[in-house]
Amino acid sequence: MTVALPRPVAGRLTLRRPRPGLTAATAVLALALTAVAWPSLFAGDPLAADPLHVLEAPSAAHWFGTDQLGRDVFDRVVHGARHSLSIGVAATVIAVGAGILLGLLAGLTHKAADEVLSRGFDALAAFPLVLLALLFIAIAGTGTVSLIVAIGIATLPHYARVVRAQTLVVRRAPYVTHAVAFGASRTRLVLRHVLPNVLGPIPVLAMIGLGEAVLIAAGLSFLGLGPQPPSPEWGAMLSEGRGYLHIAWWASVLPGCAVTATVISLTVIGRHLQNRFEGRHQ
Known about the structure:
mainly alpha, MetI-like fold, 10 helices
């Protein structure tokens, strides 16, 4: 006697396609975050100089070689992750926080105030981000704090415009109209009904914007407008090593690779999250 086995139902099991790019990006970002949290786990003192081993090529003793002062480039790149990512995160927090406040204000106030704020967002967004940051630094001066605030202000309009657009939609939603009819206070209306429903795309945009902030920070530090030597910041390391590029390429190229890998990883993960949020994930 033979027993008939149940036939598999088509479409019940869906295998996801492998995503090597996303996997690689996640691995790179995990390494970067580990370097931010525990740099001593991978590297030694980034400021320790050895005049007897100046501009040595990558080797088993010095994986990324040494710079013009005999400092280990690998140690400096690992410790530089904390400096570069901290600047990017702080600038993104400023941009997101101020963008949410100004976007809510534009979307909930009278038409005249909305018009003024919207034109201000458009005017700021019309400038290249680096030029806008340079303008602020020219007024406030150089340094890490000025760099963070400058990047935050330069990237603020993008978040503010998104929050404003979301607010204009949510304020006309039936549940908001009902809350107003039942006498909800303005503060309760904003905090409980409007704000939670306009923040949906912001974390995704912030992930993508973080990569942009890290890249801008590295570029401005390369120009000498951020953390100053001997701080092991990736952009500053690029600037220090450019004078020796023809004889010691590793002093500039490898910090540049760290910037590139981190920014690409943040962008890949951010785009993946954006696709999932928009329902385009397969």
